[in-house]
């Protein structure tokens, strides 16, 4: 069944809520519009409440016979990632062409390292990695924070020493596993893709046996 969005209005368009700082020097035209609390929005037949990033209720705006809905709220309802590039005044919906490497924001774990003795895998130095190389059977995990801005996580991971028989990526807020897989040593660097639209926080976990390890290059793993 296709996802449908019904809006009880003459027409519909979408606008992105942005901080006042982005308006400096922008090509803006002043208009007279109205907040319209009589508009009802339904998604797949069920009423939805439009909210901003902080959870406050937002109303549609009516102007010149058209109704404008906040794009961030609609994107959240449709489970589509949304972001704003202030440098180019561009609204980014869905999967982005250019990936954003995890190395740009990763700072979660004691196993995060840039030590050249630890960041090299099969002859290639990845410069910035998560490498759990402890020597006992254990759970190894870290957090990622896409903050609802991305559609997909592309994660590269390798098992060292012993196969990893359980590896998963979980929506931390909803406690839902988005991907469950295994990583064999023989697979080398495995690419794992996870749909993360609308997800704020991710919990990444591996069960490691004995002296096995988990190697995740943060320069080639990315959000998009």
UniProtKB/TrEMBL annotation:
One family name in Pfam for this protein: Cu_amine_oxidN1
Signal peptide location: 1-24
Alphabetical list of InterPro entries matching this protein: Cu_amine_oxidase-like_N (IPR012854), Mao_N_sf (IPR036582)
Annotated keywords: Signal
Domain Copper amine oxidase-like N-terminal: residue ranges: 44-92
Protein name per its UniProtKB record: Copper amine oxidase-like N-terminal domain-containing protein
Source species of the chain: Paenibacillus lutrae
